[in-house]
Amino acid sequence: MKKLNVGIFGAGRIGQIHANNLSRNPIINIKRIVDPMADKLGEFEKQIGIKIETDPQVIFDDEEIEAVLICTPTDTHVDYIIKSAKAGKHIFCEKPVSLSDEESMRAYKAVKEAGVKFQIGVNRRYDRNFAYVKKMVDEGKVGKLELLRVDSRDPEPPSLDYVKSSGGLFMDMMIHDFDMARYISNQEITEVYVNADAIVNKDIKDIDVDTAIVNLKFSDGAIGVILNSRRAEYGYDQRLEAFGSKGTAMVENDLDANVIYADKDGYHTPNPQYFFLERYTQSYIDEVNDFAQAVFEDRQTSVTFDDAIMAQRCAIAAKESLDTKKPVKVRMID
Amino acid sequence: MKKLNVGIFGAGRIGQIHANNLSRNPIINIKRIVDPMADKLGEFEKQIGIKIETDPQVIFDDEEIEAVLICTPTDTHVDYIIKSAKAGKHIFCEKPVSLSDEESMRAYKAVKEAGVKFQIGVNRRYDRNFAYVKKMVDEGKVGKLELLRVDSRDPEPPSLDYVKSSGGLFMDMMIHDFDMARYISNQEITEVYVNADAIVNKDIKDIDVDTAIVNLKFSDGAIGVILNSRRAEYGYDQRLEAFGSKGTAMVENDLDANVIYADKDGYHTPNPQYFFLERYTQSYIDEVNDFAQAVFEDRQTSVTFDDAIMAQRCAIAAKESLDTKKPVKVRMID
Amino acid sequence: MKKLNVGIFGAGRIGQIHANNLSRNPIINIKRIVDPMADKLGEFEKQIGIKIETDPQVIFDDEEIEAVLICTPTDTHVDYIIKSAKAGKHIFCEKPVSLSDEESMRAYKAVKEAGVKFQIGVNRRYDRNFAYVKKMVDEGKVGKLELLRVDSRDPEPPSLDYVKSSGGLFMDMMIHDFDMARYISNQEITEVYVNADAIVNKDIKDIDVDTAIVNLKFSDGAIGVILNSRRAEYGYDQRLEAFGSKGTAMVENDLDANVIYADKDGYHTPNPQYFFLERYTQSYIDEVNDFAQAVFEDRQTSVTFDDAIMAQRCAIAAKESLDTKKPVKVRMID
Amino acid sequence: MKKLNVGIFGAGRIGQIHANNLSRNPIINIKRIVDPMADKLGEFEKQIGIKIETDPQVIFDDEEIEAVLICTPTDTHVDYIIKSAKAGKHIFCEKPVSLSDEESMRAYKAVKEAGVKFQIGVNRRYDRNFAYVKKMVDEGKVGKLELLRVDSRDPEPPSLDYVKSSGGLFMDMMIHDFDMARYISNQEITEVYVNADAIVNKDIKDIDVDTAIVNLKFSDGAIGVILNSRRAEYGYDQRLEAFGSKGTAMVENDLDANVIYADKDGYHTPNPQYFFLERYTQSYIDEVNDFAQAVFEDRQTSVTFDDAIMAQRCAIAAKESLDTKKPVKVRMID
Fold it and tell me: What is the reported pTM?
């Protein structure tokens, strides 16, 4: 049986996850993994059974490699995308493409010109709960969508260093929620308005916010709102409500166990699964396998470069709304 | 507008509740209330606006009184029922009719001979949750009933004195659950088997049990089980599951508030409403008003003397099963 | 025992509810009820046992009447409040005071000058669920409040006629939610931004919106959002989430029954209680009795004229934000 | 790194699952798989990458194989256990050991004599929900266990052929629940009483029951009940309640998605995960890996031969109770 040869750029946390997940897919052959820190990756090397290389060129040059995964730091994505596209490789890239629309559009054009497939890493679309609500919306169960709410809260705030290099809450964290809002609604977000502040940690006030309510207007007339917080004491909070003319569909949190305990203080259930690695284990598996399947079947990827650009532009517009204290239109792709 | 004149025997806790509830029904006139402790009931007298009398004969003799409520101690019920029946009064009587089948049947025959209406006080049938499941069963939503489970647990155990005079767990507490099982299933309980012990309080071992699983066989082929405990730390537990060929219908507990609180220890909701007076406030209201309405409309009462006898006979059979450690048939009414 | 003599202006739907509820309070004597349509209120007259009069002056002139309930159309509230205040009566008035801040402030000043007590009718504060969360916030269970969300959706949209005379969604419907946000947070709403449209019924586009997301900034640094819709197919939706540094507290809907039914299509529970009369039955009872108790004990009312003014000013600011598409500051009381 | 060489007897459905699960454990080397139908297992052969052999002797004779998995038909288990034990292999065997206590005890003695490790396949002990409640019981959260309830219902009844060869409901299906009751309670089941019938399918009346309530008495004074049905329209029902002196802990069903949909007919959630392969995917993984780990670390297996024998004896006693209509003592291991 023909296998799909894959190359991976970056063997940090997320690169290792994707590599491990792909290694269980019998139609995949991970041919090369490249990481500048290869010498510190001995344990992963043993586990995955592949010699980690340091020069990315070996992947570009390997004609047997049809598809690549870009799991490197954000500021290198555009470069890897363009070179991969030119080398004729299909591309899976972690979000965001970059922190700049201009840069991202450069990569976008290179991919279009090369005619290679591209998928951005927004794993939550593959979660069974969100996919279930998406299906209900698509089947008309909620009727015409009128109000969309996305709740997304991390269990604990990132370090100050991380905040500084993250591109800010909108680009780093809420970009997932912009994508989710577009995914569930099948509509473009046309305008955003931001109601946000540094509430959890006032020390980051000059560089970022950590609690945000972002208003959305959709291209087909619905309105929506995203609620983000960098910290939730009860854990990783991942909910959504799609309200429409026939009813409402809500994603609830997945808990550590479906157990109810009752004592003199009331009824109690366990907390949500700790963070994205626990909560989205299966989504990460399904995401890369779906990308591989798209390449294998030579069909369009389920998540496209347009999706990547639009979520990024929502984040950029949100930042502008925060700065100007006004609603800001989101620029569409020509 | 013609009103229904009512007399009440007994102004203890439950008598006062019924009196207060009936006093808000514009078609009812509470004409007389009798209690031997009338001199200690000054506050209630003021509240209800009626002079409490001490001689029950005044009710039997009052030709304007069409209906009576018997809220006196259990060992006086039979006597009050027979005298009321002979005086042509319609009767609402608190459960149980008596602790002896022979005694209860004496009252039963007197009521049949007099042709007066009779209703036994099993308020839970009027609860919106249990009534909702009953309706689902009657409408065929669960299909053919196959398995019935009734969970009934008190928040705290009664005093030793109460246990001694109560007639035992089956007659005092589970009689409600036998009635509920008959009500929901529309079937007779034909056989019981008891798996029970004094677990909460070993000191009552010689006189009663406090934790019990009682197996039921129904006349139409279903099987069932009642789980009782005299103590539940989390509060008054009143659940039920009616499982059948098309699905299952479950009564859940009514909580102090429909509120969910989440913190680092998990999700939390309040406890069930404390005990029967809180949990069944509305059932008590609906129960006596339904009795009054039955008299007013000259229709059959919703709960009959046969219901009273059969629940009592289940309790008697359960006691025999506990003593003999064998399944025991429940005697039917000829 | 001394009773509190009360007069009621208006015997429409809400006036009758308050009258019936007060009539069960033994410390209250409803002395007079006035309504211009008295001749059509024969049935209510019989039920409440009081002759309905037509001239409001009889209440102002009755020196035994200490407190009044104003349950007349909104455009008469200010007049009744000012006259009642001048007559030295304590006042309970249905919301809103008026549709104009200037008018409401005239009434406000008259009440302050007369030194009478005043309570505005915001019954939801008395609901056990909302009160439970309020208590959790006050006790510090959620920590410092950071994000507040209020969901409020009616089961079906009002008639076009009603919409025209209602004062608009913000004044008619969301005013309850502004009050709830102030109540739960113990903070003032300082700024609002509106994201809203006529989505349910596009025909009202020129006169009102029916679907709205309103952003809030609070005086103590929290942010919030209110989600309103004039129609929810699944019924009257009354939820809330108070998220803070220690956790989150959520009000869930009260359903028609706490019953779960499972069949081949999944698990099912009944809809929320139909509308405000069913959902807030007990709140209406507790509200007027609390007002009566405040008068009786000569203490401050639990809900004040300041509360009425501030909720109204939020509604006015929301309307301005809708028109200007900008965030609008809410004017404080000097 | 030293690996554990494993041999597998039987490559039917469950054998393949275990093989696939073990193949992802880097400390395991599946050295041989034996199945008489090897010629029909080409696809599995390719997937697992091992040549399926037909003669079981090759495993007994392979000195490098330290541990075996017995996944063959029940009537061959005893023979494979005894031969494996004599060959010094550690043994994981699917439940039940056999349909006869005498036979099972022969295998039991052979294992004890050989001093090899033995684990019986009761995967549910590894489920996160049941394990969570087990932990709560062990930590004293429910206090002294008083009442245990196990609900276990299959989504659809097996074929008549399966019923005939299955050993009956108690041995085939409820054996899991007897094991669960022993696992959660940390007590022996000393007595059972059966209330059961062929209700789902009356045609099997002469050979088996399909709806059963089985009463348990525990060695430390608790009482319990197992409710089984061979068919539940809403799906695979796997619940449990452990009630004790301090509270109660309940396992609820895992659903296809944590999604709530509300429309005019109420609130709806998806059904439970379809059947044991979906519901217990992770348990099967954890089960065999825990066995491998026990061999690797040379520690006792988490589930022992005593556990296998006792669950089987409960099933045998249940069958006797069904036939005699009396409570039956469960025989202990000397």
Answer: 0.95
